[in-house]
Design brief:
Elements (H helix, E strand, L loop, with lengths): L2 H4 L3 E12 L3 H9 L1 H7 L7 E6 L6 E7 L16 E11 L3 E10 L2 E15 L3 E13 L5 H24 L1
Antiparallel strand pairs: 1-7, 2-3, 3-4, 4-5, 5-6, 6-7
Helix pairs in contact: 2-3, 3-4
């Protein structure tokens, strides 16, 4: 095998996170489906600027550009900060029950991973929802920070709980 071929490796990893929310499945589903609602909770670094486009339907795409290298208008600041780009494709959406999408994650121009995500929503007693989030990832060329990806996802899902509580109180 040539030197250049040996440098291109893939690490496969997956994680599953389960949460129970004090909201009906339709409300939890809407928090993913509605662009304005998703902007309130999705990001794990609230101090970063965000450019976000969402077309939530099978075949629809989502693009999130964020990071210390993104300016207030969504453009590069020139500060040398890293731009995090997530490009997603929705494969399956069943209102109040299931969402399946794949996404590629980039740091600046380098693709670092490609993942498949499944979110399952199940009604529980007292109007609650059990959310099961499963991500199956292919981490590319030495990018193996699965723990960091899982931590960021946990932060987002915790933010979702807070947002659902705020919306219920309003």
């Amino acid at each position: 095998m040539s030197q250049s071929m040996s440098q291109h490796r893939v690490t496969h990893a997956d994680f599953t996170i389960t949460r129970v929310y004090d909201a009906a499945p339709a409300r939890v589903y809407a928090a993913f489906a509605d662009a304005e609602a998703k902007r309130r909770w999705f990001y794990c670094h609230p101090e970063w600027q965000v450019e976000h486009d969402l077309d939530f339907r099978p075949g629809g795409r989502e693009t999130v550009r964020t990071g210390p290298g993104v300016g207030t208008d969504g453009g590069a600041t020139g500060s040398g900060g890293t731009v995090h780009l997530c490009e997603a494709l929705y494969h399956d959406t069943v209102p109040g029950q299931r969402i399946v999408w794949s996404y590629a994650m980039h740091l600046d121009a380098q693709r670092i991973s490609v993942s498949l995500v499944t979110v399952q929503l199940e009604a529980e007693d007292h109007g609650r929802t059990r959310l099961t989030f499963t991500e199956q990832g292919a981490y590319l060329d030495g990018w193996t920070d699965v723990a960091g990806r899982e931590e960021g996802t946990r932060i987002g899902l915790d933010n979702l709980a807070q947002d659902l509580r705020r919306q219920q109180a309003a």
